[in-house]
Amino acid sequence: MGRFAVRRIAQGLIVIFGVTVVVFVVTRLVGDPVDVLLPLEATEQQRREFEHRLGFDRPIPVQFVDYVEDLTRFDFGESFWQHRPVMEIVLEHLPRTFTLVIPAMLLMVVLAVPLGVLAALRPGGLLDRVTVVLSLIGLSIPQFWLALLFILVLAVELRILPPLGGGSAAHMVMPVLSLALPAVGRLAMIVRSSMIDELNQQYVKMALAKGMPYARVVGVHALRNASIPALTLSGWEFIRALAGYSVIVEYVFQWPGVGFLAMQSIERQDLFLLQGIVFVVAVMVVIVNIIVDILYKAVDPRVKLA
Amino acid sequence: MRTQEQVRARRRRELLRGRPYEVLRSLRSALYELWGDKVGLFGLLVVLGLVFVAIFAPLLAPHDPAVGRLQDRLTPPFWSAEGSTRFLLGTDEQGRDILSRIIFGTRVTILVGGSVVLLAGTFGTLMGLIAGYKGGRWDSIIMRVVDTQVAFPGLLLALVILAVIQPSVTSVIVVLAINGWMVYARMTRGVVLSVKETPYVDAAEIVGCRPRRVILRHILPNLASPLLTLAVLEFARIILAEAALSFLGLGIQPPQASWGLMVSQGKNYLFNAWWLVTFPGLAIALTVLGVNLLASWLRVAADPQEREKRFAAATSQRATQGAV
Question: What is the ipTM for the molecules in this complex?
């Protein structure tokens, strides 16, 4: 267990370091930060001063060492847009993203697992075909479009929910649904196919032959084995919701979380804020990955944490 | 009873044992199978239709996609009261015809999807071949890079990169290709590792084939069907990714027409012009659905093991039906 922890944390640090390097390379080498940060009409004099003040006139390796040093202290500098420390702003927005992502992922599991299991009981049956078709549709609909359709139907036509913004529970309904529903399709497909595989195994026939109740065979024996691939996908869905889909959904609904903050910082060309967001999200992603690995062990005792 | 003539024709056909005959025959049997699987057929028709529309866009589009008259702005689709048959799906805020813009949007979709699949697929397959065949240090370096990149979702990094460099068709293609090569590498490596130990690869090596020949002639053909399926699936994913980037304003830039961009521009008129958002989104959804259906048909049809399973299931079913 100790070795496992050390190894996973090391792997996680590599991921965070990799993301950091990419962001550094992109912002300092590919683009000129001064171009991005200063208005077009800035004079050469202003540019020089600005470069000097932020240290962009120093050699790249020196800048990189400095940058990494700042990161280890969780110091991302000050946002140009809000004139506050970047870390403060990001940590203020992070819980709001989680209040969307966590309910969405719970909803995904609650809907997808029963759907997948019931579909797998009778492959080719009516429920199975309905599940497959719905999942395929869910896979194919662009998330931002789904979100806009929700607004169009629920807020503009029926007027039962507020269209944009954040705060109340009513504001949460549409963003959570937009995050959850496409993921339900993907997870239900995985649960379905792994349940079909498990139900064809010898141990299932054995359990039934010796007279074990069908519900117990399906719900305990087969489901536990089938839940391993489902767990992998759920972890991955959580990560993608956190570090990708939330940007789209928060942007559409103008939900004040990290994703919307990222879009705003791009619009306002606030490089330091953007760097801080990417770093914090990377740390979250690594943490979720480690939690999923530990859950594996809980579900499947055969897994060796090494 | 067969006539003399038929027997002779059959012999003549059998003489044509060369590759062209095989290709033709396998193509015909594939089409025959597709006919039996209507869902897969629908997928293929959607994809072919998309390519057709993209090629002949200027002939098919009723209006110029980039120019509109302001007095025509926000005309609803033709079936509503204020609609006109001149603009079947209505017009946008600048009076441009939605249908024509959707038709021209197929070009961007195909261009981006095709280029990204080609770029990422070639690079990823190459990396996978090297990692799987060479093993050792190469393998661990390549797979470490793959693992690191897979661990972090691409969208946020793509946004950062596109926010710094100028977003354009080329930069979208490059960014999505950088984000997408890992799946090919992983899959290729897996297949290579399992094929490498087979007797025929050993035999080829003992006979003295060079690594390049072993890889290209003996190992690569095993990858044909999984790679094809993966490429089609990835094509669907890339279409969605391009649409999402364009929707966020970091993909295709106006005045070019892209479905994601159209939805993005239409969202400002969500409250009084529903058609701006609905139709381009529908185009994306239908296209991706078609490509996904094609991929799920291909997965079963192009995999010998799956075929065998299906064949066995069909024969056993026939046998039981015969018994009853």
Answer: 0.86
